Amino acid sequence: MAAHTLHTLPSTNPSFSFPQHAPSGAPTQHSFYPYTDNGGSTLGISGASFTVIAGDTRLTSGYNILTRYAPKLFKIGGSGPDHKGAKIVLSVVGFAADGRALQERLDTLVKLYRYQHGKDITVHACAQRLSHILYNKRFFPYYVQAILGGVDEVDGSGALYSYDPVGSYEREYCRAAGAAASLIMPFLDNQVNLKNQYEPGSVQGLEKKQLEAKPLDRETVEGLVRDAFTSAVERHIEVGDGLQMMVITNEGIEEVVLPLKRD
Amino acid sequence: MFRNNYDNDSVTFSPQGRIFQVEYAQEAVKQGSVVVGIVSKTHAVLAALKRNAEELSSYQKKIIPIDTHYGVALAGLASDARVLSNLMKQQSLASRLTYDRPILLSEITSRIGDRAQTNTQQYGKRPYGVGLLIAGVDAKGPHLFEFQPSGVTHEMMACGIGARSQMARTYLERNLDEFQGASREELIKHALRALKDSLSQDKELTIDNTSLGVGGVEEDFQMYEGQDIASWLETTFENKPEGGEAMETDS
Amino acid sequence: MNHLPHAWGRPRDDVYGHYNPSYLPTSLGGTQHISSMPTSHTQSPIVTGTSVIAIKFKTGIVIAADNLASYGSLARFTDVKRLKPFNKKCVVGFGGDVSDMQYIDRLLMSLDVQQNYAGSAKEMDEEDGGSKALMGANNLHTYLSKVMYKRRSDFNPLWNALLVAGLDEKDAPFLASADLLGTTYSAPTLATGFGAHLAQPLLRNVVPDEKAVEGITREKAVETVRECMKVLFYRDARSMPEYSIAVIDGSGVELKTDEKLENQSWAFAETIRGYGTQTVPVFVEDQDQIRTLDEMREYLPEDGLSAAMDDHPFRTATDPGEFRDIYLAAAQAVERMPKPRQLEISFDLQVDAGMGQGEHEFSYAQGATESWYQESSVDSKVGWGMFPTVEMDDQVPKAWKKVGEVKGATIELYLSEQNEHYINYRLIH
Q1: Is C42 a catalytic residue?
Q2: What CATH number corresponds to the domain at position B81?
Q3: What CA–CA distance (Å, rounded) separates A52 from A220?
Q4: ipTM for the complex?
Q5: Could you list the residue ranges that cross the membrane (chain C) (predicted)?
Q6: pTM of the model
């Protein structure tokens, strides 16, 4: 609180997921580095008939909070600027400007797809398209971790895809990304994929029967998301302010914004 | 074969000051089936008659929604219209991306107008063989623009282009005073009646051969076809006391 | 695969041998001379402007920036207008490189021409739809952010931080930022540069969230911004007291470019002794641990106050014993307060400036009671000299409630309503 107590704080620098300066063996020169880390965290969980994607709304630069409300979740496709009728959600975390550019590109392509084909793009086609967009820029990547969510048109199940910055992607049941990914992902592993959970009474010597993961219902998933973020906020300075959550079902997208701690 | 020596390309004037290729292109518009557009203070409506090449074929596409705030109706070469509408779609998306706003109808119209004009001034180019009605709502309110192969564009209160469109225009001219204050429903009916007037005696407007496009203030441009327009066709024509053919304006 | 992204895309040394640096310039271990090197772009800004600050109010926006363009630490140009109006609805505030600002200003001019070319100015005025068809601040911001992002992607950045303020297409207040990386964000209050550290907390105190914007009048917004400009001038070495301020609302843009800071008080500067935290004669830190009188007593220097006072160039006006009495009385008053409590105690010492031998010159008091401090969001007390001092009259900031009075000792106790963490003691002469 008082400044004269500040020196008692540990003198470690904050850790960022990206280097703050251009990696270079040369003597440091004041030169332009085109990336920054804007903090924040996202996660997605898919269920039997829905997908939930969530992200905090804080935007940071170092120790500064640039704004308390900068959405990381974007509807993709649908009609017009409000994305009416959209059924795909993209979340991006990392370098916000790249995230925005990626979102706009994917949205434009999905809208053109509808114009040219007269029907909406499927989630898995959109997922592959996103991969291509990222991969095409692999030598100057979009510095973002993306998560794409929707509902599988074939069997009606929740569809969730996660990406690295250069386009590797995978369909998963849950994924956390961004600043607090290392805090949230183990929690999801345990609670969604039931990692390290064993059938009670099944332990006999070295024999242990792993609990089998089943799709969770919507209330449970939303509860997990809230818990994951309220916990992340406590431990990571770049996470906080608001929790934006989108639930994608066959009926469309429901969006809620809940408050998180602003400290 | 040739009408004269001055129509081999679109860059040569005739001694009378005409460019025949452009005029031929305008003839192509007259070959296309009729489309009608009207604006009121609050709405813009497009109505189009679709033809099918033969009994077994599908009907052509006459109205193309471009962006959420506007669409176009075409008369003439459909393939040329597709090129133009793709261009318009791209320009519309670009406006949303760079300025975060829907493109002004006057602006998109002059863009394609300029593009069409270059075809009339460069050797080896061919004018677009299509006329367009561009209708919708932008920041300045509802609008209807007419585009011609020559690159000429006009803002209109009501307009009809395509085969036998003179009859539609006659209807529109006679009822011009009513359009400004017309409601959405009234405007649609006026468009359908104007369209109907252009049909030859033995033809009727049906749910198969009619397309409607409606845009309004605070209302996205929406295309209606098939069963969606059945009730409009019924209330506009069938319920008329005298067998549906007579219109109060025919007197 | 190597897990270090830095190694990705580089040839493996064990397969291809060491990296051949010959194409690199000599400075990087290569053999190329600079003249044969690839094009290089701006690597750093040259002539720069400092902070821009802006705040939303109920019906519009206030934005301000000073008129200085610095060349490093040299105050090079002192009459540079860093707020650029655009079409009756928007103002762009520029921080960072001034030549890049001038380039963007030219872009804005051609954009304005392009926007007005289609419809004549006459049409704009006459038609009701005219002003609605004007570019809103949101449109302008989107455009500028695209320009910034394109240039950063070309590795040729425009070295600026921009604030775009104005009314959007629906005539609602709009405020957003774009910077040299193309990062964009919007908030009810924004500040670039040093302002992000110094002014933003003060602005956020006034407008904590979008909901609070409704309660802010134009006058309050202007006053807040002017106060922030003053703080920025106090503490930002690359700033100056002449500044521009613009208010944008339904009636248009009102831009003043020759404002001067008013009511500056540099009295605090006299008390500054070197940099960093100063020695305070008596202070109690670590709010959580102090609970009892005895514990507090431990914080008093062994031999009363004299030892502590010796460190300080000033002398107490009262003798140490008297001061100690007062201190203890204050501590007792604190005792009576309900728990839990967080304390931070600062004494308003009346000090003898040491000038008059025979007479006591009670000229200044420690500035903790000054409203400037109380309104600021600085949540740490850094001792002597960091805050402006005020003359010792009986003014007490209105927001402070008097919660108790200790008769025997001449001391009054005030509790800030806004922030109950602070208790302030005030010596009554």
Answers
A1: yes
A2: 3.60.20.10
A3: 11
A4: 0.87
A5: none
A6: 0.76
Tokens of C266: 């540099």
DSSP3 helix / strand / coil % (chain C, rounded to 5): 30, 25, 45
How close B133 gets to chain A, by Cα (Å)?
19
- Measure in Å the smallest separation between the Cα of B138 and chain C Cα atoms: 8
φ and ψ at A148, to 5 degrees?
Answer: -115, 135
User: Which residue of B99, B106, B140 is in closest CB contact with C132?
Assistant: B140
Domain limits for position B120? 33-232
pLDDT at site B206: 93
Reported as a pLDDT band with limits 50, 70 and 90, residue C18 is confident
CATH code, domain carrying C138: 3.60.20.10
Q: How confident is the model at residue C3, as a pLDDT?
A: 62
H helices of chain A, in order, are 96-117, 123-136, 181-191, 218-235
Q: A254-258 long-range contacts, Cβ below 8 Å, gap at least 24?
A: A255/A73, A257/A57, A258/A226
Who among C184, C187, C380 is closest to A100 (CB)? C184
Chains that touch B (3 or more CB pairs under 8 A): A, C
CA distance A105 to chain C (A): 13
Give 3-state DSSP helix, strand, coil % of chain A, rounded to 5: 25, 30, 45
Opening angle at CA B146, ends B141 and B150, nearest 5 = 140
Q: Which structural domain range is residue C181 located in?
A: 47-117+133-267
Cα dihedral A153/A156/A158/A160 (nearest 10): -20
Domains (range + CATH), chain A: 36-198+209-259 (3.60.20.10)
* Catalytically annotated residue among C26, C31, C39, C42: C42
Q: Which H or E run contains B27?
A: helix B20-31
Do the chains contact at A80 and B89, CB–CB below 8 Å?
A: no
Q: Is residue C372 part of a domain?
A: no
The 10s digit of each residue's pLDDT in C236-280 is 999 999 999 999 999 999 999 999 999 888 776 666 666 665 554
Indicate whether B245 belongs to any domain.
no
- Which residues of B fall within a CB distance of 8 Å from A115? 89
Per DSSP bridges, beta strands C350-352 and B35-39 are unpaired
